[in-house]
Amino acid sequence: MGKEKGLVLVFTGNGKGKTTAALGMALRAWGHGMKVLILQFIKSQQCGEHVAAEKMQPTLEIRPLGLGFINFSDPANVARQQRAAQEALEQVTTAMTSGNYQMLILDEILYALHYGLLEVSAVIGLLEQKPEHLHLVLTGRDAPPEIIERADLVTEMREIKHPFKQGIGAQQGIEF
User: Fold this and answer.
1) What are the chain's domains?
2) Taking the alpha carbons of 119, 106, 94, 153 in that order, is the dihedral positive or negative?
3) Helix ranges (DSSP H) in the chain
4) Would you call 81 helix, strand, or coil by DSSP?
5) Cα separation values, 167 from 8, 13, 14, 63, 170, Å
6) Which end of the chain is more exposed for a tag (fewer CB within 10 A), N or C?
7) C-beta separation of 110 from 141 below 8 A
8) Which of 101, 102, 120, 125 is nearest to 110 (CA)?
9) pLDDT tens, N- to C-terminus, the chain (176 residues)
10) Is the peptide bond before 58 cis (omega within 30 degrees of 0)?
């Protein structure tokens, strides 16, 4: 086995499974006694993973920091979303430098980039200051090339078929 190294992992693409893959990594890391923090950049509502994480504390914690749906036709809403994303980024920096975690998952941070809530340069700055031991997982659609280039692993989820297109709504335990 090689030397332990904190990796940068990216789950992107238009298919379902980005957050689910990250949660699987969190579960695996938790099972090995690693301390995991999941910071959610867009989600605000209670999901099944929040209920599970409550039972896994203190070594696995999820913080939903987003404000949910972004109304781009309302500049005040967009401004609130940008502030929330900036505050989430500050929490990432604090968590990264604390030395308390072996894995940080930045759920939907790539959406925050895509929607202009954060600057790519700010996320590159995070990658550059990542401690050597820390695994950093980023999820969301449309990963920018600068992030892909700096990642150790990039997986693209590609939609082939989705029940929503057949008129089936989001299912508990599947989408939330």
Assistant:
1) 37-141 (3.40.50.300)
2) negative
3) 18-31, 48-56, 75-98, 109-114, 120-129, 145-150
4) helix
5) 36, 22, 18, 31, 10
6) N
7) yes
8) 120
9) 557 899 999 999 999 999 999 999 999 999 999 999 999 998 877 788 989 999 999 999 999 998 888 888 999 988 999 999 999 999 999 999 999 999 999 999 999 999 999 999 999 999 999 999 999 999 999 999 999 999 999 999 999 999 888 999 989 888 88
10) yes
How confident is the model at residue 174, as a pLDDT? 85
Which residue is it, tokens 């994480």?
53
- The tokens for 103 are 């894995």
- The SS3 call for residue 144 is coil
Q: How far apart are the C-alpha atoms of 107 and 21, rounded to whole Å?
A: 11
DSSP 99: S
